[in-house]
Amino acid sequence: MAIYQAPVFVNEGSFGIFDHGEVPIESADWSGDLIAPLSAGAMVRTGINTGNVRVEVRTGASGDSSGEWEDGATALVWSPTGSLRVESVVDGPQLKLPVLAGSGPGWYELEVKARGRRQAPDASVLESAETYLISLHLVPEATAPMSADASAAPNRDEEARRRRLLQG
Question: Which residues contact 125 (CB under 8 A, 6 or more apart)?
């Protein structure tokens, strides 16, 4: 197991786990407190509104994470290209952190643990005391859940058509 860490700039109280830089914000499911799954990837809610938080990414075999975590959540996320990365909505991908979807395109279980989210709620701070631990594990095709909501598993033809329209 390896753990990588880096600061990530937060704007409007969130940072992303995006696939190939795509930010399908209109598909966000904000019903959870910590993770908002998207049609591809997810948003992570922070305590601060603006500033830097520390993000740790755990790769390889699961194990106990060091430190005490105050919040935790899991969600299923779709990675159409296998390029899920931790990204600032403003600054783009944090290149000091590895690609999360190491097994290529597919469904992944995203686990996010957090501490320090309540120390400066909605504040704008240069360096926050918030820390997030991110891990991602492939959900094998045979056991991937089928959602009652068809938008949870994107239609590849519709996604390609949408991208062509957005590119002009």
Answer: 48, 50, 51
Question: How far apart are alpha carbons 61 and 55 in whole angstroms?
Answer: 19
User: For 27, which DSSP code?
Assistant: G
Q: Please state, in angstroms and rounded to a whole number, the distance separating the CA atoms of residues 151 and 34.
A: 21
pTM score, whole prediction: 0.80
Q: Where are the alpha helices (DSSP H) in the chain?
A: 156-167
Q: Which runs of E-coded beta strand occur in the chain? A: 2-10, 14-19, 35-37, 42-45, 50-59, 71-79, 84-88, 92-93, 106-115, 124-138
Structure tokens at 151: 């938008």
**155-164: long-range contacts at Cβ-Cβ below 8 A with a sequence spacing of 24 or more?**
156/80, 159/39, 159/40, 159/80
Burial category of 130 from C-beta neighbours within 10 Å (exposed 0-12, middle 13-18, buried 19 and up): buried
10 Å CB burial of residue 143 (0-12, 13-18, 19+) is exposed
**Nearest one of 111, 139, 117, 141 to 130, comparing CA atoms:** 117
| pLDDT tens, position by position, 146-167 | 544 444 455 556 666 655 666 6
Q: Are 53 and 132 within 8 A, CB to CB? A: yes
